[in-house]
Amino acid sequence: MPDGEAYRRLSRGLKESLFDFILRTKKNEPLHVAIYEFFLDEIAAAFRAGDHATEKSQHALSAAGLDAATVSTPRTGTSGISHNKFVVHLDKNGNPSALWTASANFSENAFHFQTNCALTFDNPTLAEL
């Protein structure tokens, strides 16, 4: 793996914005995630550290100590590619309170070698979701 500093520069704050979004959640504030590719163990570990339940994607979740069967629902029966990439933070009452959305999958290439971007919305309205 390349030097940590080089990877931080290559990320341009993209991966760090996702970590910040995940780790600011509190107990009983769930995250709902829709992602096309989920290959990074460190992101699965961040979901685990956030103290909420959220072939490679399943392994990344399991390796981080999350029960993939209860925190994820694989896509089945889709006629096209669902290429979603977003995380919705719900407050303790189950209302959307923040949104992180990006052009990036949760993969090494997406965060360090491709030109991707992300947006975060705090207190989004339903129209923004």
Low-confidence spans: none
Q: Into which percent range does the helicity of residues fall?
A: 25-40%
Alpha-beta classification: alpha+beta
What is the strand arrangement across the widest sheet?
Answer: 1-2-3-4
Question: Between the first and last Cα atoms, what is the distance in angstroms?
Answer: 36 Å
Taking Cα atoms only, what radius of gyration do you get, to the nearest Å?
A: 14 Å
Major beta sheet summary: 4 strands, antiparallel
User: Which shape, going by the Cα principal axes?
Assistant: globular
Q: Strands, helices and their partners?
A:
Layout: H1 4-11, H2 14-23, E1 31-35, H3 41-49, H4 57-63, H5 68-71, E2 85-90, E3 96-102, H6 108-112, E4 118-122
What does this structure look like?
The protein is of the alpha+beta class and 129 residues long. The chain has one domain (4-72, 82-122): Endonuclease, Chain A (2-Layer Sandwich). The protein has six helices and four strands; from the N terminus they run ααβαααββαβ. The chain has a four-stranded antiparallel sheet with strand order 1-2-3-4, covered by helices on one side. α2 runs parallel beside α3. The protein is globular and about 40 Å long. The N and C termini lie far apart (36 Å).
Highlighted features:
single chain; 129 residues; alpha+beta; Endonuclease, Chain A; globular
Kindly summarize this structure in a few lines:
This protein is an alpha+beta fold and about 130 residues long. It has helices at about 5-10, 15-25, 40-50, 55-65, 70, 110, and strands at about 30-35, 85-90, 95-100, 120. Helix 2 packs parallel to helix 3 (about 40-50) and helix 3 crosses helix 4 (about 55-65).
